[in-house]
Give the backbone structure.
Amino acid sequence: MVDALATGGARAVARCDALGVIPYSDMPHGLYRGYLTPAYRAAQDALSGWMAAAGMAVSRDPAANLVGRYEGSDPAAPVLMIGSHLDSVRDGGCYDGPLGVMLGIETVAALHRTGRRMPFAIEVIAFGDEEGSRFPAAMLTSRAVAGTLSPEALDLVDGDGVALADAGVDVARFCTAARAPGSVMAYLEAHIEQGPVLEDQGLAVGVVTGIAAQLRYRVQVDGMAGHAGTTSMPLRRDALAGAAEMIVAIEAIALADRSDVVATVGRIAAGPGAANVIAGQVDFTIDVRSGDVARRDRAADAILDAIEAIAQRRGLGVGIERIHDLPASPCGPHLQDLLDAAVADAGQPVHRLVSGAGHDAMVMAALCPTAMLFIRCRGGISHNPAEHVEPADAEVALQVMVGFVEKLGDACARS
Ligand SMILES: [Zn+2]
């Protein structure tokens, strides 16, 4: 019934919906699809049929990624990979990941319908473990394909005590999913934006310039615990009041930058944690991101300076530990231009934006130039059952992807 729909974009959305329930979900109400679970296998089986119907030869690679290959006129030419991930977070939405895979299939289906071949083969890949919602690691399977995964990283156990080695993959062969350098010409990923920018601007799609550089810190503020009734205000060293001032300063610094810099305090714990005791110790996290690593670092330096100054003025001790430093992953400039041109050809305004979230494309950048197309999602909501994509927007995205592939084909024919 899904396949009776007239247009590829609508069919891609409907297929994501179809995979949002049992047996394609591991939970009875809502969607959770973990890597290598029964729902993952069932979703791969469904995908496999759709890939075959679109003219692709289907296989599973050693990392249990599903790959559909549509042969090109030159079988020896480096391939274009189009993909995204098939797994989901717990109680997630239907489109984060699968929509990019379905649109990849529809892109090939559009070529197959008219018997067209590109100078290069196209491989649609459904990655298995982007979210890291089952095993305590993320993007394992794209790291395997990109050749950046070490075998030691596969010593993993899920929340139920099942080892990855017993979950249905051969860990000894896992890393042989690596593609040879030079064998992949480019990687294209379409993904829901997971943010409100496109909706705010009234745009169906946006061209991603790159994935933001991330920094994460753990901050510990030390004051003096004391009786809430007997310690007069001037004599206090209140760690929680100090942390509150720091958090407001962090927000103000990111706001004042008037750029793509974002800074977040997402977790805080205060001790000893009683209504009648002044907080003696507070721990909180800071997450700072920007598409430009220098801009990110400038904002982070200003934040750390502000924290030190506030601590000093209040007589508080402060310890700051950097726990995470992820470089930016810029998309291929030439591929961004091709996507821009395809967006314009589809009659849409061209808009570029940075991705604040990580994606498989970030990993694939180690192997080949990458391109990403963001698709508007309602309210910017994701990782939530309320995630929603308009079929008309998916249609625009599909047009852009087909246009992108054609332009890449023209560029190859010319060179
Ligand atoms: Zn995703």
The first helix runs from residue 8 to 18. The chain has two domains: 2-212+328-414, 213-326. The two ends are 43 Å apart (CA to CA). Residues 70 and 391 are 25 Å apart (CA to CA).
